[in-house]
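As a warm-up, study this chain.
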Amino acid sequence: MPRPQLIPLIGATALFGGVILGLPPAAGASPLYTLTTSCSLKDAAPVRCTVEAEDQGTVTLYRHRIGKEERVIGIAEEPYVRMGLWNPGSRGWQALASASARLSTNTICFNGRDLCVVNPNYLNSLRQERGAALNGRDLIRVTFGSDGRINAYCYDDGCPGGAGR
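Now compare it with the structure written out below.
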């Protein structure tokens, strides 16, 4: 299953250039998997949701359907890994400010807790790819600059707010 490499784990973000800049994420792309799980928006209580991972060539889309809401996270690999959130209002991609993963709960959150999802498919593939590098780790957090490049990444107690956050 093709997946973007994550630098070192979650990725950098930028407005996507070339292939998808300004283009809406097309439904019906090559599906990688569909997962029924739980998601939360804006730090609300988790609710049932569906995540569809789609391969669109150089971009992998993660389409989160939460009730009547839909959030699409896109991850591209070239020329470096970057992540964005599709904004249907502006019909464009927005750079993310942060992304984090809590390995013990298989939870991934974007922009703080604006969108959180339990996705063991995605995190298990990270565990396989990174092996010993993740031994004993639980929290992984990445922050991004306005230019889309990684400003910082941290693990566990090295992150602002520590591992308990």
